[in-house]
Amino acid sequence: MTRSYRFRPVFGRVLAAVVVVVCVVIVAQSLVADAAGSWFVLAPLALVGVGVWAVYWQPGVDVDEEGVTVRNILRTTRVPWARLVKVDTRYTLTLATDDGRTVGAWASPAPGAIHALRLNKTRLAKLPESTYVDGTVRPGDDETTDSGLPALVIRREWERHADAPDTGAATEVVWHARTAVALAALALASVASVLVSQLS
Q1: 114-133 pLDDT tens trace
Q2: pTM of the full predicted structure?
């Protein structure tokens, strides 16, 4: 049976949606109030909208039969099961590969100190064996956290695929060139619009 899992931070996606809606409302109000002068706010608001989308909506972690895909702000990394050597949650969900790469997941940060004080020891006792480092676990391994749930699923699937034949697939990195270009272009356009508005 084919299994696949997708992890996206709910708070980040809600925040991104709210910010984009606010930007659209501001643009609409500007067009109604002063159509001729409203173009000065278009580039800065577009920069905010695209930036929030890239930082809070786009990132995520996908797990399937072939491996793990970590989608960050400017790049996506695909780690096949045979290339994975370690899963950590010290600061964020982090995958280590057999070629020396470490891939942190922007969408899966570890919890803060307050959460660490409220850890449920009983729940942590049922985690996969690969979770334990020197006989203990990290607060970020708690399955109720943004880092813990994907880490739990990844470790279980990794163990399930431990005896699968190595297909030779390598870790792949794809840069989000269009996102980077869009952010750079909108940043330049925003600076230009601010300068022009001050001179006019």
Answers
A1: 665 566 555 555 666 666 66
A2: 0.84
Which amino acid, one-letter code, is at 176? H
Q: Tokens 């034949």 belong to which residue?
A: 165
Tokens found for residue 15: 């925040």
Residue whose structure tokens are 């940043």 = 187
Domain chopping of the chain, boundaries: 8-58+177-199, 61-175
Tokens standing for residue 188: 């330049």
Burial readout 129-148 (b: 16 or more C-beta within 10 A, e: otherwise): ebbeeeeebbbbbbbebbbb
- Residues in Cβ contact with 159 at an 8 Å cutoff, skipping those fewer than 6 apart: 128, 129, 130
Q: What are 96-105's contacts with CB under 8 Å, separation 24+? A: 97/171, 99/170, 99/171, 101/77, 101/171, 103/70, 103/77, 103/79, 104/70, 104/72, 105/59, 105/61, 105/70, 105/72, 105/147, 105/150
Number of alpha carbons in the 13 Å side-chain half-sphere of residue 163:
1
